[in-house]
Request: fold
Amino acid sequence: MREDLLSALSAITDEEKALLTGSSIDRRLYSRDGAFVVGRAQMLGDSPIRIRTHTRFVDFPEHRHDFIEIIYMCAGETRHRINGTAEIALQQGELLLLAPQTTHTIARASAEDIAINLMLLPIFLEEALGIVGRESMLGRFLLGCMQSDRPTVPYLHARASGLFAIQNLLENLIAQGLGGTVSSRSARLTMGLILLLLEENSACITAGSASTGQNPLVEAALREIHHHYRTANLTALAKRYSVSPSYLSHTVRAQTGSTFKELLRARRLERAAELLTATDLPLAEILPMLGYDNSSYFHRIFRARYGCTPKAFRLSK
Reply:
């Protein structure tokens, strides 16, 4: 993220200054409801969108929203519990899309943990829905948010830290929000492009379940892929949890919409993009770190994901 923008977002707000002196969350800033439903009247007023930084230095208590919320992790990490069961550690560059009425708690964030809350009314996302299409995964999620008080998919978790085009668009949208012009048509189209790029990289998205939250087996598979992407293996993981590979594969695909192999490939490519950007390591050294020994195959899947060769990607960054 641009240093000037991150510096502006890192500034301690008046609310946070009060929290640092020992005050607790003032629920009146967010809700007029005793059940702590964060309301559009308080948070958005007459605007279809509002962008604000997440409140740090306190455990944010269990609450719901009557609007769609997208959380973008600019720096650091925040830890979320959704519908009382699903645990998500949102890392830098990742997004969490929350449907209305989804129960949500957030663990205390430090000064270095910078998250942005994009609070949206359905009207702001109508053009985005037209761009991604009603039959896409994100389109179905948006339709559920627009047509039901209790959508069947409570959240989407997008591990998009390697998708720099999405991050650039989000930064532009955030900068517009700080300037007070975020409700323009260009901002709506920007949101549509962000969701379209996410849809094109849907292997990085995990969908939550309305009934029980994330399946523990799926959580285990996603942890394995995220932390042990070089050696992650479906058969070995299934054996560890005493299930068949076919059962684990079916469970992962049913809940995430992607196969174990697709998710692993997406994570490896995401890590490749990070290493190409942040280091000067030659590709020949990067490939074994990712679990690849075939450079021709890697070049093919990298180009399919990012639209250019690894060398061109590194030069562009």
